[in-house]
Structure formats: structure tokens, C-alpha cells
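Sequence, please.
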């Protein structure tokens, strides 16, 4: 397995063309998709024909340092979901997004915090990143808690994107969290 960062319990790796079924299974869980699509699954053909090719292209574009990374438990190798560390299009590489999508079986076990913390460390110590940001819906209290555990700071409120207006709680919009390298180093 071509690992990216590892933690005590997790190994992150680059996705491969053989990983479509893992993504399809993850995106078919209504609870996982609650704050993304209102619980609707992602169509398997969309994962195979668009999402996975975009994930693989991003990994190539950023030399494998940035992108989406599959996360597995080190003990047993179970796929638990993915983490993201990548810039937005047309934005400098020193500002990157942090995020995650985990299977329900992995919720409440500290994996989102653990994996995110490892990515923050890599971003600030190895990749020359100046600032990391993350966004979540205002009603997604679980993600708020994780960002606060990471000592990210609430930086702004954001409107719900038009494609998320059907999601319960979208009228409350979202929140953007940020942490700079200087803030991370002071922890």
C-alpha cells in the first residue's frame, strides 16, 4: 500500500482506479450523505465516470502530495473513508482545504480528528502550506466539534450552495474554519 501519512491507528493512501466500489459504498449511506445531499446516494456511474477520475487526476496534478486519500484502520485494514487536503482551483498551493468523509462504523472513534491532525502536521511541516481551511453546515455539530478540537478558528459564515438548499438546516448556511501555520505552531 502506497501510504501517505500514518497515525497510531490509521494509514492514509492515494486512491487507485480499483477503489470505485469503496467510494460507492461510502456514498450510498444516507447518514454519511445527510449534510451533503440530504441523504441521497451518489450514483455509481457518477463515482466511476467522474468522481474517481477527478480524484486520480488531482493526485497526479499535485504530485501525490495533495488530494483525496483513502483511510484504512491499521489494525485489520478496514476502509473507513477518506480525507482531503487540496487547494481550490486557481488558488495558491499554500492555502488548502481540509475535510473528511467517514463510514458510520468509524464515527465517534476519534478518527476524523486523528487523521485531520496528521494532515495539518504534514501541510505545515512538509508542504509549505500557510493556511488550512474547512467548511461545514451550521447544523453539522459533529464537524464543528472536530474543527474546534483541531484548534481551527471560526472565520466566516457562508451561504448554503444552491445544490444543497434541499438539505435540512441549509437555511442556516455554513461556517468556514481556518488555521494558519503560525497558529498551529503555537499549540
Amino acid at each position: 500500500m502506497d501510504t501517505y501519512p500514518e497515525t497510531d491507528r490509521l494509514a492514509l493512501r492515494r486512491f487507485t482506479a480499483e477503489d470505485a466500489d469503496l467510494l460507492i459504498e461510502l456514498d450510498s449511506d444516507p447518514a454519511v450523505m445527510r449534510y451533503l445531499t440530504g441523504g441521497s446516494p451518489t450514483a455509481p456511474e457518477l463515482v466511476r465516470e467522474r468522481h474517481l477520475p477527478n480524484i486520480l487526476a488531482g493526485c497526479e496534478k499535485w504530485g501525490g502530495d495533495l488530494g483525496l486519500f483513502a483511510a484504512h484502520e491499521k489494525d485489520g485494514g478496514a476502509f473507513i473513508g477518506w480525507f482531503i487536503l487540496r487547494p481550490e482551483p486557481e488558488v495558491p498551493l499554500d492555502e488548502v482545504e481540509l475535510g473528511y468523509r467517514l463510514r458510520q462504523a468509524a464515527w465517534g472513534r476519534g478518527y476524523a480528528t486523528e487523521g485531520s491532525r496528521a494532515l495539518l502536521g504534514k501541510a505545515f511541516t512538509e508542504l509549505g502550506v500557510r493556511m488550512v481551511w474547512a467548511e461545514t453546515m451550521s447544523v453539522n455539530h459533529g464537524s464543528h466539534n472536530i474543527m474546534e478540537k483541531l484548534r481551527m478558528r471560526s472565520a466566516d459564515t457562508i451561504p448554503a450552495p444552491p445544490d444543497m438548499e434541499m438539505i435540512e438546516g441549509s437555511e442556516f448556511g455554513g461556517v468556514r474554519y481556518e488555521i494558519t501555520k503560525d497558529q498551529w505552531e503555537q499549540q
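Strands lie at 3-6, 10-14, 67-73, 79-86, 95-102, 131-137, 153-158, 174-180.
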